Amino acid sequence: MKKLLVWIQSWGMVWKMFVILFVVTVALFLGMAYKNYKDSEVLYKQVVTNDSKELMVRTNQFIDAYVENIKSILSMLSSEKEWSQEKKEMIESTLRRYGNLNQLNIKTLYVVTDNGSVYTNSQLYYDILGNPNLPRLYQRALENTKSLTWSEPYNSLLSGRTIAFMKPVKDNNDHVSAVVIGEIDLENLAIRLAPLLAGVHQTFVVITQEGNIVTKDNQSLLLPYDNTVVPSRIQPTFVKRMSDLEYGYNEVEGPKGKLIIVKSLANYLGWNLFSIYDENYFYQSVSSLYTNARNTLLLWVAALFLCTFIISRYFTNPIKKLVVKMNKVRTLDVPLKILDVRNDEIGSLITSYNLMMDRIVGLMNEREQNVERRKELEIKMLQSQIGPHFLHNTLACIHSLAQQERIHEVEITIRSLSGLLSYSFDKISEKVQLRQELESIGMFVQIQSIRYGPNFDVQMDISEEALQCEILKLSIQPIVENAIFHGILPTRKPGIIQIRAKVHGQSLFVYVADNGVGMSKQKQSQMFNNRERNNRNGRFNSIGFVNVHERFRLHYGAPFGLKLISKEGVGTVIRIKIPIHPNP
Known about the structure:
By secondary structure, the protein is an alpha+beta fold. The protein contains 17 helices and 21 strands. It has helices spanning 2-9, 13-78, 88-101, 123-129, 134-143, 186-197, 236-243, 279-282, 291-330, 345-403, 407-424, 434-452, 464-467, 477-488, 521-526, 531-537, 540-556; strands at 106-113, 118-120, 149-150, 154-156, 160-162, 164-170, 176-184, 202-207, 213-216, 225-226, 233-234, 248-254, 257-263, 272-278, 431-433, 456-462, 470-472, 495-504, 507-514, 561-567, 571-579.
């Protein structure tokens, strides 16, 4: 505080008055706004809580009506006095009729007689699956023969998760001759309650007096679930906490923040209904109750800041612009000049900044040009390493054919060589379609086949989609040449070279495989190393592989290029991976 006073005293009178007026006014209105907010919060909480209670009263009335409907169904069924085995088909037909008419409320109807016979509206399923809960439900109904009885939630093989309602049937001698049991459809009950109590920020849970969940909104993500069991369920500790809450408004910590839980009084069945809200959604309308105070505060703050802006703009605005530009330099963004023209010290600083930016832009452009030139020169150097070697081998083949006076084959070889040279020295584009590269490989293979005869066979399996993809010129041919001279021919027996290409995702994959001599692991590891030594020795096996690999990496980046897999006596596979749509 002392430092603040010293700082203010160093200013002029105008700034002192501005600071005092601004701070006092803003503090006053902030205090008023805060008090208004707290009063509004309490008022809104009361209004929403009352609205929630009213809605829950209506929901409980709906549940009571739902139970009364079930009670009426069971009462009508219990009016039937005879449940003998001789009338089995008639009893099953009656149960099916009642079940079809009330399928939205009751899932399965049973009649359990005093002699242990069981009739149901789903007799076939009962005969197959059974229901081990019926004896317990029957005994519970006998404990209270004068009114409707209901169970806690349980799992039924015929009805799923359900609750049973039991109604005893007495004969003329006031003896219980049977018990009518109805298992309700809890899933349908949840669907009917959801439009009243469920939403993106709101959900509900119905819990019995014993703390068991009757039904809930299965789509809600507000409640904590135990995912270690199947199906997942609300954590028992959280259910216990809800059961222990007081009636009315409560605040509870949920999995994603604080929850507002409104607990209703128990209904006819003794069930408690819980309406649960996301706290942020619960209070989202509070702002409408203090809009006037906020607008007044904003008006005063705007007026004060307008005065501040008029006074300080002339001094602070150029400095802010300079800071923004300097931040762009720090983050390596393209710097821009400041166009303000001033004749004071700030203007001198801006002029120095603009001169510095001109120099930085010049250096960046010069660096980019050098990188492009280096890339172009390196690519040309790599291509020149491949070209002379290929030409030497081809001319040696023609020389050998001429000595043997195989004129027709010399003519074919020269024609193929002419096509290859035309393809190799075409300057239109550095990249070609895979289809064109494969055609050049066909001419190359034709030349080598004439010289070496049927010592190797080239097989191609290329997808139509891959044929349209672009690839670097003269990138596959050196690999095929490598497979012939260093893979197949040293075996001194016929071999096969397979070329496959396919598109997977955003990449083109080309595989060149041979069943030649293969290579050891040590030799494989040396293929990517010792580039300079290999160049001096003139061994194409390394030159072709390393050069093609480096060409791909220069064009497409480090993740792309060649991958080699080989085994001595088995053969070699080289995989080419390049992007279909490379970055410009």
